[in-house]
Structure formats: structure tokens, C-alpha cells
## 1
Amino acid sequence: MKPSSSDERAFTIRTVTGDDLPAVAALDERISGIAKPDYWQDVFERYGGRRKGRYFLMAEDQNKKLLGYIMGEVRAWEFDSPPCGWIFGINVDSDTRLGGIGTALYLAICDGFRKFGVHTVRTTVSRKNELVMSFFRSQGMMASHYIQLETELES
Ligand SMILES: CC(C)(COP(=O)(O)OP(=O)(O)OC[C@H]1O[C@@H](n2cnc3c(N)ncnc32)[C@H](O)[C@@H]1OP(=O)(O)O)[C@@H](O)C(=O)NCCC(=O)NCCS
């Protein structure tokens, strides 16, 4: 993946490796307040390394400190949708936000999606998460003609 940098603070974007997993899980736990070791192991097994159309990318500073990560994949023909890029997770360390790292991660994963001929990028955002909503809107994303439906399952 092409390196990215900002004037204020140089950083690099690269694929997450197994060695990075504890730092990624710790960053998520700091932000979400929930430890999810099994989830992160599963994400790494499915998306880590160089897998066709699957991306688990991170930004790190010059001291190799994790600054943020993004995950996504190319999905095809779900509910008749032609192949599109799906982003299903992004987090940037609170100390380094508003420095262009989220944007660099987003652009890097979009570069990956383009290699598969994809023209559309999708994600799901909680209506309560105005921060993430503002971020994705700043990338040009808008509500699409797909909507999510859900129900509570009776036990
Ligand atoms: C959303 C997030 C990834 C943005 O990362 P970032 O590195 O700060 O993003 P950038 O610096 O590239 O910002 C890009 C644009 O996003 C928007 N944005 C970012 N932070 C914002 C804020 N606090 N308020 C309003 N808009 C904001 C702005 O339009 C910004 O552009 P600008 O700086 O020119 O105004 C980061 O805030 C984050 O990790 N938040 C928590 C994510 C989360 O809840 N993840 C769990 C669900 S996936």
C-alpha cells in the first residue's frame, strides 16, 4: 500500500500483521470500552495479510506507534448489488484525530477497492455516532437507496 504522510505528523499506511493485533485490540478497547480478543483474532484470520479484496490496514507513526486502523472488503451480488467496497470498521487514536489519518486510511482502502473494478463504497453508521457520520460525509458518502431492516429475535 502506498505510504501516506501529513505535514504535521508523518505516518505510514500498511497492512496489519499478527504482531500488530494486540495494539489494534487495545486501541479499540480504549475507544469502545469493551475488550473483544476473540473478535480481533477472527478479524485478523479473515482479513489480515494480503487476501484478495480484503483489507485490514493501519496507520503508524515514525516510531511504529499505531495511530488508527480500517477494515473492509469487496462484496459482490448481495441483494443484487454489483461488486462494491464495504468498510466495516475505522478508528483513529483520540490523541491524533483531525490530522488527516482517518482520511488517509479511507483513501488507502478505496485504492484497494479500485483494483477490483469497484465504483461504489458503502458502510453502516449508527445514527447516534455523529462523529463517524461527519467523517464519512466529509468523504462524500451519502444515504443510499439501500436501507437496513432489523428485528429482535424471540428466545
Ligand atoms: C471518525 C474518525 C475515524 C476520523 O478520524 P480523523 O483522523 O480525525 O479524520 P480526519 O482528520 O481525516 O478528518 C476528515 C474529516 O472528517 C470530519 N471530522 C473529523 N472529526 C470530526 C469532528 N470531531 N467533528 C466534525 N467533523 C469531523 C471533518 O469533515 C474532517 O475534515 P476537516 O478536518 O477538513 O474538517 C475518528 O474520529 C474516530 O476514530 N472516531 C471514532 C470512530 C468510531 O466510533 N469507530 C467505531 C465505529 S466504526
## 2
Amino acid sequence: MNDTALSVRDLSVQYRNKEETVFAVSDVSFDLRRGEVLALVGESGAGKSTVAMSLLRLLSSSAEIGSGSVLFGGRDLLAVDERELRAVRGRHVAMIFQDPVAGLNPLIAVGDQVAEILTSHLTIGKKEAKKQALQILRDVGLADPERVAKSYPFQLSGGMCQRVMIGIATALNPEVIVADEPTSALDVTVQAQILYQLDQLRKQRGTAILLITHAFGVVAQVADEVGVMYAGRLVETGGVDGVLGAPLHPYTHALLSTLPRLHEAREQLRAIPGQPPELHEPAAHCPFIPRCPKVLNACRADPPPVLHAGESHTHPVACYNPVWQG
Ligand SMILES: Nc1ncnc2c1ncn2[C@@H]1O[C@H](COP(=O)(O)OP(=O)(O)OP(=O)(O)O)[C@@H](O)[C@H]1O
Ligand SMILES: [Mg+2]
């Protein structure tokens, strides 16, 4: 049985402004399987949101998809026409944004926004849609759905708006949900509830979830697979236990060593020394070289390493000199 819900192949995206070009995403490939949570992690600017927005062609007008395909249900979402894409958006592949302002219309009562996703994709009357909208709001754990339905986004808390967005994203039972930092603006309790809801969807409906997050705690809690991004590239992928327990890329290693340990009383997170590169030209060599403790001559001579599962690796890594375990 083919259990792949969505495949991204060789995705490259550039932003072109008057002054400069940013090579935001380079040669990214991954598969998202049914009933699986794949977490994308990496520092700010690594290209995570650009990947997410590319999947449904929601990028800003300065963005240009240089190459690649997004295969869903036998079609390439980067190649289908706008009408076909609209039929997929929200219905089969849905997005949850970090910022409720970006995902909800400030001028429409939220109940009507939930009802609209139903009427726009299903043959159902307005009255029935409103009734179902109340149930959807109840299902995402909103205590007083009647009141919430009549409210405008600004009258609700961030956590409530986030739940409304999850309601909209899940209303039509999509095969794939892309959630870009769905909990980073929320307090820890609400965050745990939202993650629990995403986890239930995966278990009960077999939804495939691409979850973008900065938080390794979140990854360990809900993800099955993890992809680590650095400077627009996927540098390591694999099962959560493998990547978090035995990281192969020096960058993943460094990221994990910045996490506070329980027995260490730390005021602040340690940062990885150095800065991620500016991405104004295509990388000639591995972009991690300036910050890497394990650079070889080959790293400086050869093109950026591609993600590959070496014989003695436990999972794929893009590195000429990976961190060996045991
Ligand atoms: N509209 C834009 N115009 C120009 N450059 C952009 C634009 N959007 C993003 N970029 C650049 O593309 C790169 C990737 O950005 P992206 O937002 O995808 O990163 P991210 O991994 O989601 O970061 P964060 O964790 O901060 O959300 C960055 O260098 C960013 O500055
Ligand atoms: Mg982002």
C-alpha cells in the first residue's frame, strides 16, 4: 500500500527584490506519510515557512519557485492550474498559520468563517453550515461555541483564535495539514492542548501533519519523523529517536547541545556560535563550514553534500564528515 500523502522533490525557492536575491530553499525533498507527524526544525531563516508556503503556492509575489514538485494525489501542485489548486486548498491540504491574524479574516465573525469553508467546498445550505460550524468549534475545545461563533477575531484570545484556525483547517477532514509554528505564541497549557488535538487527528483520521517548530520538546512529544533545515537545505532526516538520540549532522548536534538540561540551572539558552549565512548566492560548498567543528578539506573543495543514507548511517544526512555514534 502506498502510504505517502505528499512528496516534495528538489524544491528550490528564491526571493527576488530590487536590491537582492535570497536563495531561501535549495533542493529540499521529503515524503510525508499518512498518519504521521513530520517536524521541520532549524534556526530562524532556515527556510521552514518558505517550504510550507510553497506546498500550496501561498508565497509572496517576490518569491519564485526555481525548481521542484509537490506531488499530491498523483498531481504536481506546483504545476496544476489555479482552479485545481483551489479545490485542493483547505479541502485536501490545509494550513494552520503561526499568526491568527494571517489565517483569519478580521472583518468576519468566526462562525461565518468556519461555515464558509463548508459552503465553498460542499453542497450544503447556509443554515446547515452554521449548525455544523458550532459543532466544529465545540470539537476544538471551545467552551461556549455560540458566543465564539458570533465573535470577531479581535474579541478572542490568541489560543481561541488558534483553535478556530484548527477547526477551519480540519473541518473538511483534509489528508494533509501543514502547521507552521501553531503553538509558539501560546502559553504552555494551551500549547499542550493544541498539540494533543493535532495528535488526535493523526490517530483518529490518519491525517498527515507537517509541523514546523522551534521547540525540540514539541518534536519529542508529537513527531514521528524530523527534518533538520540549515540555510535552506534539509541536512538530516529520520525517526525522532534516531535524530534526537544520535544526531549525525554537526549542526543537529550543536542545536541539541543548546537545549537546557534539567540539572543545569540556566538563565538563558546557549546559542550556537556564529551566524547562519546570508543566502544571496547559491552555496558553492556546505553552508555550515564557518560554524562547523569537523570541517575536512573535502568540505571546502566539494559542492554542498546531498542528503543520503550511507551504509553505516542510521538515517540520511547531508555531511561529508558526520558525527559517528559508538
Ligand atoms: N518575502 C520575502 N522577501 C525576501 N526574503 C524573504 C521573504 N520571506 C522570507 N525571506 C528570507 O528567506 C529566508 C527563509 O525565510 P523563512 O521565513 O522561510 O525562514 P523560517 O525558517 O521560517 O524562519 P522562522 O523560524 O524565523 O520563521 C530568510 O533568509 C528570509 O529572510
Ligand atoms: Mg517561519
